[in-house]
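Appendix B. One record, verbatim.
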Amino acid sequence: MFVESLQATYESYGLLTGTNHAKKTSNGLYTITPVGRLINVKIERVAEEGEYEELQKDLKDHYEGNLKVKDVYICGAGTVMIDCRN
């Protein structure tokens, strides 16, 4: 949803207004927050060991071939970032 909206609806979500666009998944397990051209994915409970790595792999596989997504990585805060910067 957020990836597809970039450049079609938004050039960037902004650095300070991303939380205005934050969404929880329908099952409540994840919060997705756009920040500029990065999209942060956070597990909304205490994560088990290896869970963020598995989420990173699943998102990388999902966005493989999508030219808007440059990288999917685990950031220093421990959450997964989807990088859509040019």
